[in-house]
């Protein structure tokens, strides 16, 4: 009897030890990984969640992006110096009538307090905006641009309907060189017209900032729209900032309010077929067929081709896309490279 009791006690103690060991093993299996691993995950998470402005490739501290807006900006000598042009992420310079160029400035990362002088639209400027799904801003329009916009191709605000409200007139300039708008007024106009400003554009392709492009010297480029310097655009490379500074009519292009200079990380010059379509001298420009181009980055120029990818004019080399250097991009469109562009 005593032996049986001892055997039962031994069996009970063995079962108790077995249960305790099993519980310990389960606790170890369900416990978190090492503290070092958790710290590594915690420190790596913020870098993965960093926001990048989609049209500049630069870091953003904003949690949510917003929709881009594209503004027609006057480049007549009576409209210089302009306001807010240096804050645009992308700027197209294109001929309108005769030897006069206008700018299409696309904003997403900055919200200028003054933009202008704002000028009237042409159809190809509207088409250039579609690749960014931008809200289109102009003061006036050609018959072709009017038809395109009224058919719902893009959301838009026109100074013809908001002169003196969303758009204001500067008293130090004469019409039509004195119409201005602000980012806040664009937002107000969007709210009035139930235009959604939440959807930000898809990112542009960007290059590794550590890579130096290979090509010819590209320290200076002159884009000639006329024999006179009045309509020419000159870009000079600044080695310190690795940006191109813009000049026109032998004067550096600076902001009216702040004096801040135009500083460009990417200068892309694209050759496109131009055609005069009416007695007024308005043009049609072939934005879709592709063609020759010159890309200048970090003091280097490369002969490339341009392609229209989902409404965006992008550089290609040997059939492969070339990434932009993070920062601001200016795109000059010309009828022929050999007649309008010189590099130094």
From TrEMBL:
It comes from the Bacteria. This is DUF3048 domain-containing protein.
């Amino acid at each position: 009897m005593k032996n049986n009791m001892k055997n039962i006690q031994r069996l009970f103690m063995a079962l108790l030890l077995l249960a305790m060991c099993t519980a310990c093993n389960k606790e170890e299996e369900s416990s978190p990984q090492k503290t070092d691993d958790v710290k590594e995950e915690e420190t790596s998470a913020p870098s993965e969640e960093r926001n990048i402005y989609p049209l500049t490739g630069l870091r953003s501290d904003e949690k949510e992006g917003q929709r881009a807006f594209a503004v027609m900006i006057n480049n007549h000598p009576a409209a210089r110096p302009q306001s807010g042009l240096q804050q645009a992420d992308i700027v197209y310079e294109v001929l309108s009538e005769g030897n006069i160029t206008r700018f299409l400035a696309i904003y997403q990362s900055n919200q200028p307090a003054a933009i202008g002088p704002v000028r009237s639209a042409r159809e190809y400027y509207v088409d250039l905006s579609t690749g960014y799904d931008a809200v289109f801003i102009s003061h006036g329009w050609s018959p072709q641009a009017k038809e395109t916009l009224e058919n719902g191709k893009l959301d838009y605000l026109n100074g013809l309907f908001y002169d003196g409200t969303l758009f204001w007139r500067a008293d130090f300039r004469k019409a039509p060189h004195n119409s201005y708008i602000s980012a806040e007024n664009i937002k107000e106009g969007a709210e009035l017209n139930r235009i959604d400003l939440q959807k930000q554009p898809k990112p542009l392709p960007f290059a590794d900032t550590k890579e130096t492009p290979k090509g010819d010297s590209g320290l200076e480029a002159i884009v000639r729209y006329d024999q006179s310097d009045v309509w020419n655009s000159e870009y000079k490379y600044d080695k310190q900032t690795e940006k191109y500074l813009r000049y026109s009519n032998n004067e550096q292009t600076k902001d009216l309010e702040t004096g801040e200079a135009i500083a460009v990380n990417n200068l892309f010059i694209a050759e496109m077929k131009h055609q005069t379509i009416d007695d007024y001298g308005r043009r049609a420009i072939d934005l879709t067929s592709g063609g020759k181009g010159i890309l200048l980055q970090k003091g280097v120029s490369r002969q490339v081709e341009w392609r229209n990818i989902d409404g965006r004019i992008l550089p290609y080399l040997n059939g492969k896309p070339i990434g932009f250097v993070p920062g601001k991009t200016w795109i000059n469109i010309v009828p022929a490279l050999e007649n309008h562009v010189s590099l130094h």
